[in-house]
From TrEMBL:
Pfam families: Aminotran_5 (PF00266). It comes from the Bacteria. It comes from Chroococcidiopsis thermalis (strain PCC 7203). InterPro entries: Aminotrans_V_dom, Aminotrans_V_PyrdxlP_BS, PTS_EIIA_man-typ, PyrdxlP-dep_Trfase, PyrdxlP-dep_Trfase_major, PyrdxlP-dep_Trfase_small, SP_NH2Trfase/AEP_transaminase. This is Tritium exchange subunit.
Length: 384
């Protein structure tokens, strides 16, 4: 067994390119220096490019959960009515965050593995004649199940309502799928560094529209460290309100440059190709996919094996090949495994993971496929 050969095929942390690893290894510089300000200015410009927005994109020292929490509490007041889409672990979490802050939460649910129905949002929003609904909180790519919710349709209904803010968890869709903030009219987008950004965990991002800043003026929920007004003032001067993770930002500086070189369309097309190859391979192995093709997340593919144990598959891939796959969460523990294909992932990584998966299946006595069928199916996608 070779050491230091770990291959992360999970939804986060995701693999980190060498340019970012080398940036992390540098001596930290002072965060109040002109040198750091110059880096921050470039990072901020590139974050706006990635979010396809003219609005503010702010950086917090936090995980994706911290970014979403900031995205909720800066624009609402106690007792405000919010709709929360819940069809997996993260949608459920945003309901819990909103309840913890005394918001009046109405959950719109779908079974785990199914997408949320935009028509239910339309109905609830249309029925709200008094404009009591102040926000709709949605997880775009539900990492726990591998489902991509229909952002375009849901945000359209929020716009028709006119009053409610669209608050989006784009933690595993930003940088993998087209999320044009300004064109769609999304008010708040939260994301985290260890996903499409291709750097280790530790930074959260919140993009804020002009409409959300209007709501900020009258929002009464308590906040201090997560008060986005402080970050807005500092970011305008290319500085930070508190001590940031300097080296992570230097690494982000490197990966955002890489992303700009690849180009948004190429990034989205690559993730689409990786998703399709992974799904075609799983089908060729006669393993059931947990989410349907028409709502497949670009970040992760969930597999629900019915004739072989999900945890045993993960165990063999880890022990034999040093490939990490993710398991199921909550009631899906042991029932599914999840193959990540987000961020710094290439065609080669998918072929390696599928080849290793075939070995594991054979070792477990699963005979539901022709040897080589998974790799061949992925290869067909990559060759087309």
């Amino acid at each position: 067994m070779m050491n230091d050969k770990l291959m992360l095929m999970i939804p986060g942390p995701t693999p980190v390119p060498e340019a970012a690893l080398l940036a992390l290894a540098k001596h930290p510089i002072g965060h109040r220096t002109s040198e750091f300000s110059n880096i921050l200015a470039e990072v901020t410009a590139n974050l706006k490019w990635l979010h396809q927005t003219e609005s503010d994109v702010l950086m917090l020292t936090a995980s994706g959960t911290g970014a979403v929490e900031a995205g909720i509490i800066n624009f609402l007041s106690p007792g405000d009515r919010v709709l929360v889409g819940c069809n997996g672990k993260f949608g459920d979490r945003w309901g819990e965050v909103a309840e913890a802050y005394g918001l009046q939460v109405e959950k719109i649910t779908a079974e785990w593995g199914q997408p949320l129905d935009p028509a239910v949002f339309a109905q609830k929003l249309a029925a709200d004649k008094d404009k009591q609904i102040k926000a709709v909180i949605l997880t775009h790519s539900e990492t726990s199940t591998g489902v991509l919710n229909d952002l375009e349709a849901i945000v359209g209904h929020v716009k028709e309502h006119g009053e409610a803010l669209m608050i989006l968890d784009a933690v595993t869709s930003l940088g993998a799928y087209n999320v044009p903030m300004d064109a769609l009219g999304i008010d708040v987008i939260a994301s985290g560094s260890q996903k499409g950004y291709m750097i280790p965990p530790g930074l959260g991002f919140v993009a804020v529209s002009a409409k959300a800043w209007e709501a900020y003026k009258t929002a009464k929920l308590p906040k201090y460290y997560l008060d986005l007004g402080k970050y807005r003032k500092s970011t305008a001067k290319n500085t930070t309100p508190f001590t940031p993770p300097v080296n992570l930002i230097v690494a982000l500086h490197a990966t955002l440059k890489m992303m700009r070189e690849e180009g948004l369309e190429s990034i989205f097309a690559r993730h689409q190709r990786l998703t399709q190859a992974t799904r075609e391979a799983v089908k060729a192995l006669n393993l059931p996919l947990f989410a349907a093709d028409n709502c497949a997340s670009p970040a992760i593919t969930s597999v629900a094996p019915d004739r072989v144990d999900a945890e045993q598959i993960r165990s063999i891939l880890k022990k034999k090949f040093d490939i990490a796959l993710a398991g199921g969460q909550d009631h899906l523990k042991g029932k599914i495994f999840r193959i990540g294909h987000l961020g710094f992932v290439s065609d080669r990584d998918i072929l390696s993971a599928i080849g290793a998966l075939e070995v594991a299946l054979r070792e477990l006595g699963y005979e539901g496929f022709t040897p080589g069928a998974g790799v061949a199916a992925a290869a067909r996608v990559f060759a087309s």
